[in-house]
Amino acid sequence: MAVGARSGHEEPEDRPGVPGNAEPAGTADAAAADGAESDGGSTRGGSTARKKPRPLWKELPLLIGVALILALLIKTFLVQAFSIPSDSMQNTLQRGDRVLVDKLTPWFGAEPERGEVVVFHDPGGWLEDTQAPDPNVVQKFLSFIGLMPSAEEKDLIKRVIAIGGDTVECKKNGPVKVNGKALDDKSFIFEGNSACDDEPFGPVKVPKGRIWVMGDHRQNSLDSRYHQNLPGGGTVSNDEVVGRAIVIAWPVNRWATLPVPKTFDQPGINAAAAMAPGALGIAGALPLVLWRRRSRTRALVRQE
After folding, report:
1. CB count, 10 Å around CB of 250?
2. Cys-Cys with 224: which of 49, 65, 128, 234 at CB 3.0–4.6 Å?
3. What is the number of alpha carbons within 13 Å of residue 244 lying toward its C-beta?
4. E strand map for the chain
């Protein structure tokens, strides 16, 4: 039989308004009751009441707790906000700017690179005459979880000029030189400043695992130049570095990234690269020296 075909022995088709087609009394009511039970989650063996949502005042403490834990984890392992307390990094950074510092990459062994703006703990004696602000309880708490810049820690922010293994120097009226290469610092130092006329230095050999830092406002920055009489000779240990400042986050009209100036990428600035020609010369001459020694040895043996 084709689908939809009707047999003459079937019951007449129910049509609305046609006598004899009405359902037996109570059928519609029973169906409605069955539907209501299905919607309410009831079963014939008993009924299960739908759970009511928890009120907001009960959910709110849990949400706040999760948010605080996430903020603390982010501050500890990812990024942290820092406030700029001085003018030593003008015009790159202004007093009162808030910067976000990348704390993640150091966990994977990344070390400071030339040209980066970094935040580091006081190596000892750099801020001994500087009084830290006295924050209230709320400020301490917000600073602890990372929602406010650190208020009590004695941290500094400078630009990395040289890294471990580099030789850095700056003579009066001259540019800063790293491994003999002059830096073109006009794009980032404070307008009207000289490279180092207020405090010439060097040459300084930066020890492995340490960095030489300078402020962009050269005539208003007590940086590595002014602490050469302290342990470390004015350099900062990589272990003291909190992380690299990557962006100005506040105020909004000051939002900007903090890239590495191109002058730090110039060819030959790397200490390894500067030594490369000599190393290649030695490597090329070594086989010739060995060959000549062998030839002389053979000649002596024949003569004997």
Report:
1. 15
2. 234
3. 17
4. 42-43, 46-47, 79-83, 98-102, 117-121, 155-163, 167-170, 176-178, 181-182, 201-205, 210-214, 236-237, 241-250, 256-257
* pLDDT value at 7 more than 70: no
Instruction: Tell me if 242 sits within 8 A of 120, measured CB to CB.
Output: yes
Task: Compute, in degrees rounded to 10, the torsion defined by CA atoms 297, 299, 303, 304.
Answer: 20
Secondary-structure breakdown of the chain: helix, strand, coil percentages, each rounded to the nearest 5: 30, 20, 50
Q: In this structure, are residues 260 and 116 in contact, taking their beta carbons and an 8 Å threshold?
A: yes
The H-or-E segment that residue 152 falls in is: none
**pLDDT digit string, tens, across residues 257-277:** 999 999 999 998 986 444 434
At residue 265's C-alpha, the angle toward residues 263 and 271, to 5°, is: 110
Q: Give burial (CB, 10 Å; 0-12/13-18/19+) of 144.
A: middle
Three-state secondary-structure class, residue 130: coil
Taking residues 43-65, report their average pLDDT. Answer: 66
DSSP string across 76-91: HHTEEEEE--SSTTTT
Instruction: Determine how many CB atoms are found less than 10 A away from the CB of residue 293.
Output: 10
Crossing angle of the two packed helices 56-77 and 137-145, in degrees rounded to 10: 70
| Model pTM above 0.90 | no
36 in helix, strand or coil? helix
Question: In this structure, what token pair is assigned to residue 29?
Answer: 């009511």
Angle at the Cα of 12 from the Cα atoms of 8 and 14, rounded to 5 degrees: 150
Distance CA 18, CA 22 (A): 8
CA-based radius of gyration for the chain: 38
Backbone angles phi, psi at 118, to 5 degrees: -125, 150
Q: Which residue numbers are catalytic?
A: 88, 158
